[in-house]
Amino acid sequence: MNRMQNKRAYVYGGLLLVLIAVPFALSEEPYLLAIINFTIVYAILCLGLNLILGYAGLLSLGHAAFYGIGAYATAILMARHGFGFLPALVISGLLALLMGFVLGLPTRKVRGDYFCLLTIAFGEIFR
């Protein structure tokens, strides 16, 4: 398969997934909506892990910590401070980005198993 055929297969596959998901997304059944929501969230988490493992070749086991930072920040901003969902989402995303930068400073020169251990340690510190 050449590159153009590969891209075309991805586009058709994505369209097929959208066509399959639309009837479920338009449903008013709370269980189906919860399943779709969790599926999308986990797909986004997998894309982040694929980015760092697939392209950089680094095994990072601290992704759950950044997910948790964003989730907790969103919940606190909405529940305690009265923010709307979108402003809380942006602020919590920036906070997770800042924490990623803070973790990235000491780990930028580390490779292999040591990088994996540092990201595990960060996840445990957050827990």
List the helices and strands and how they pair.
Elements (H helix, E strand, L loop, with lengths): L2 H23 L4 H26 L7 H17 L5 H23 L5 H14 L1
Helix pairs in contact: 3-4, 3-5
3D structure, described in words:
This protein is mainly α. It is built from five helices and no strands. It is flat. The chain starts with a helix and ends with a helix.
Percent of residues in beta strands? under 5%
Helical fraction equals: over 70%
Largest beta-sheet details: none
Low-pLDDT residue intervals, each spanning 5 or more residues: none
Q: What's the average pLDDT? A: 82
From the alpha-carbon coordinates, what is the Rg to the nearest angstrom? 18 Å
How do the helices and strands follow one another from N- to C-terminus? HHHHH
What is the rounded distance between the termini? 45 Å
Q: Number of helical segments? A: 5
Shape assignment: flat
Helix-and-strand structural type: mainly alpha
> How many runs of DSSP E, i.e. beta strands?
0
